Amino acid sequence: MRKYNAENERIKRRYELYLCEAKGQDEKSIDKVRAALVKFEECTKFKAFKAFHIEQARQFKDTLRRAKTAQGKPLSLTTTDATLRLVKGFFHWLAGQQGFKKVLTYSDVEYFNNNRKDARAAHTQRPVQYPTTQAALHAFQAIAEHSEIQRRDKAMFAFVMITGARAGAVASLRLKHINLVDGLVFQDGRDVNTKAGKTITTWFFPMHPDYLDYFTAWVNFLRDDRFFGPEDALFPKPERRMVDGKFAFDTLSRDTYSNSSQVNGVFRNAFSQVQMHPYTPHSIRKTLGQELSDRNLPLDAQKAWSQNLGHEKFTTTVSSYLPVSYQRQGELIKALGVGLL
Question: What's the domain range around 115?
Fold first, then answer.
């Protein structure tokens, strides 16, 4: 059982309340803050925050640079930079709290800054792998569909291909959010786990028709054969039952998943079983971004495509989901030189 400082725990609890109620951060974000502060306290041997000295910040940075992952590798620059920023945020808040204004200044807090070189490297965008439309279709077609669970997984894959929905949203969707008549999904931020609780209306993207056909058949199966209602899960968890004295998970419940791990697993397995990189469902958003680029659509259609992904600004789609590889960058520049563009 790890050590702790009772006074520090009370202060951290106040900060967590501040992040939740004043800053509107979710539990997942606050968990990252908790982990970062524990790392700092371990470095100081759980000294009281009131005993803070700038030397502790320097020692903490040195500790992070020497730290190893579970695999024995150094912490990534991104992880180190994020940890420093989270701890710095806490001490910036603490500097304004009663009882700390005389022992901690905002200038002291600046000692948690990462060096410019590492900070710049930590925020450098790196190429993210994503499947081509042909690769995704191949993986989809290879998914088995012998059981209800396998059919659910295949429908889940198809759904992401025609919506680009994030894994957390997919896991929490219910049948009431699907409109097959108009061809859309209403990602209601009140009860769907969308990013930042945003409500998104997404019309089904015009991808390969097999995706929409399979997903439509799945929804009809739930409604007509299993008699699922509007409040039941679109991609339900397995139901536990006894078979020959053993627990089996081979049929569907009516409950949604509590997190996105199953959705991620479905995609990784689908690509892995056809000897491809284990792409995540989030990578499909880049596939859809590339599809937008390949179609050479008029400006208003490009904007509609962007909104369909849940982006209020078209620039978000361009910067995050229209990747230009170094090879493609070179091809485009060379084409400009010979007047091909």
Answer: 6-122
- Residue 267 to residue 269: CA distance in whole angstroms: 5
Q: What is the mean pLDDT of residues 15-39?
A: 93
In 3D, which of 40, 9, 27, 26 has the Cα closest to residue 109? Answer: 40
180 & 228 share domain: yes
For residue 232, being part of any structural domain is answered with yes
Instruction: Assess contact for 86 and 32: CB atoms under 8 A.
Output: yes
73, 29: one domain: yes
The closest alpha carbon to 87, from 115, 64, 116, belongs to: 64
Whether 150 and 103 share a structural domain: no
pLDDT of residue 154: 98
Task: Tell whether 62 and 138 lie within a shared domain.
Answer: no
pLDDT confidence of residue 148: 94
- pTM score above 0.90: no
pLDDT tens per residue across span 154-197: 999 999 999 999 999 999 999 999 999 999 999 999 999 998 88
